[in-house]
Amino acid sequence: MITVLPIIIPLTMVVLLLLAGKKTRWLKTIGISGAFLLLLANLAIFHQVRQQGILVTQAGGWEAPHGITLVIDLLSAVMLVVTSFTALVVAIYSLRGLEPQHHRYRFFLFFHTLMMGVGGSFIAGDLFNMYVWFEVMVISSFVLITLGSKKEQLEGGIKYVSMNLVGSFLFLAAIGLVYGKTGTLNLADISQTVRSSDQPFLMDSSFILFFMAFGIKAAVFPFFFWLPSSYHTPPVAITALFTGLLTKVGIYAMIRFFTLYISEINPFWQNLLLIVAALTMVIGVLTAASQFDIRRILSFHIISQIGYMIMGLGFFSAFALASALFFMIHNILAKTAAFLAGGLINEKTGSYQLKSIGGLFNENPWLGLVFFLPAMALAGLPPLSGFFGKLFLIKSGFEGGHFLVTGIAVWVGIVTLFSMLKIWNEAFWKKPPEGVVAGDAGAMEKPGTLQKPGVSISPNKLKPSMYYPVAILAFSTVVFGVFGGWFMDVLQDASEILKEPEIYIRAVLK
Amino acid sequence: MEITLSIVIGVLYTAGVYLLLRRSLVKLILGIIFLSNATNLLIFLSAGLTKGEPAFAQKAGEETARQVADPLPQALVLTAIVIGFGIVAFTLALKYKYHQKTGTYDLDQVKQTDQS
Q1: Residue A267 has what pLDDT?
Q2: Cα dihedral A314, A315, A318, A324 sign
């Protein structure tokens, strides 16, 4: 019954948090210990999946194609561990990184419903069940993004909510169409039906709806506009949480679908994925290079890097898939760390605007280090994790003969380095702008911009307890790079299973 | 009957998309409701319609299985309707809060977060 833990633990925490009343101390204690328990449980699940292969639970004893099935294969287990680790670190950061009022508004309650949705999406073996967990996740994120009801949060919230709802309706419509065509909702059963059918193209109309739905969640090229216009509005701990979890669930769903249903190389889907990937990478990175707000630079970067993952999926080979997974995990760690480091910069200077800050490296070398590591990991410098992720992806691209899109990926990597260096130069190296006393930068901003002036914690004094979580994540990108071989072995095992849907089908349907 | 419902679904989708593209926040929410209901009907229709028969039960004393309506899409629609309610409640609350803060429903004003 270990399979249900990713849902049960957050649910228990939600109940406890509701009982805890309004005492922030209790809320924080329960929230953190819940996140810690979840990580432990997911590590146990990972261990068991390594030992025994795919874990399957039939809820309520209803046999596979009829009941609700929970399936954890190696990919799900890896994603569970990585997301709960990231969430735990963000939770620790939020103890001081969020204002007391956010905790009173039950940040941790929605944090745990979000984790329940994320965990449920990873282990659902059933289309409709997956939709329900997606909704749990998305609705909690609606509340989190507007938590505190600042004007810009509400504005970002409107864009975020409407775009994500359209995605949800497309997902639901696709489920209806698939049920009408195959008469089943079980992922494995649909896969079997599609494979044994002599007219698999009949499914394409539903799959394109799925592609759009997951594309909206994952922020791929034509659907990404909600992300950069909403991700910079909430407090940075919430943004970091979204970065690590939400878009990656979209990518996970896409990987799950494409490997289960389109296993042989199909020129239509391959071209679609590669074109979308190339456009996502290029547009994301170019728009990032033109921004001057740290959070907006990083937001546009999320999009660009989603492109790399889609590209790895589009190559349709086991090694490329493993590289895409490697890159995704690297990105979860490094991106979250970069956002949190950006939050530290804001705590210190009171601003996210590159034009009004500077000289931070002299003042605070440690802050420089915790930003430098994830930023260079994102840019892809050895021996950090991003280097190996990009290396594997580019290698598999050249092996598969996709020279154009791989060349674009190399070029995008260079522009990524440029925009990371832009933050580095502006915030850390250049002299502080004239007339700005350190710690007073927020006052220089034009009235009417959306920056919040200063936060409750007085600028200039960074408490060490805010550093630790960021340092843990920054350090984990180094570990993930240096010990990349071991991680890559695990991910290659995971992609071998993904490449052979028969294993998944047999495990579920017995 | 299927044809009629299909046309209704199509009209609902069209109207929903049209309303989403309007400038008013209230119409945006109406559009979301339309899309939600169109999708619910689509699921309801997905298994085909069996008229005048109960979902599960056979009549008393009957031995052979008759054609019964597929109960699964009906269960799915119930779930989807409940989720839709929650979503609409949230968007209405969001609309209320936004109007309280800014005093406008005009979506053309909602571009502050896109300016760097």
Answers
A1: 84
A2: negative
Taking the C-alpha atoms of residue A57 and residue A68, their distance in angstroms, rounded to an integer, is 9
CA A331 to chain centre: 8
Interface membership of A126 toward B (CB under 8 Å): no
**Mutant choice from A162, A166, A291 vs B, greatest count of B C-beta within 10 A:** A162
- Per the structure, the complete domain to which residue B34 belongs is given by 2-51+70-104
> Chain B contact for A199, CB < 8 A?
no
CATH of the domain at B41: 1.10.287
Q: Which residues from chain B sit within 8 angstroms of residue A291, using beta carbons?
A: 116
**In contact, B83 and B71? CB cutoff 8 Å:** no
Confidence check: pLDDT of A507 > 50: yes
Handedness of CA A281, A284, A290, A293 (dihedral sign): negative
Per-residue pLDDT tens digits for B71-108:
888 889 999 999 999 999 999 999 999 998 888 888 88
ipTM, two decimals: 0.91
A175–B43 CB contact, under 8 Å: yes
Mean pLDDT of chain A: 87
Please tell me the pTM assigned to this model: 0.90
Give tens-digit pLDDT for A296-351: 889 999 999 999 999 999 988 889 999 999 999 999 999 999 999 998 888 888 88
Within-domain flag for B100: yes
Contacting residues of A for B87, CB less than 8 Å apart: 139, 165, 168
End-to-end CA distance of chain A: 18
Selecting from B42, B87, B101 the residue whose C-beta is nearest the C-beta of A173 gives B42
B10 located within any domain: yes
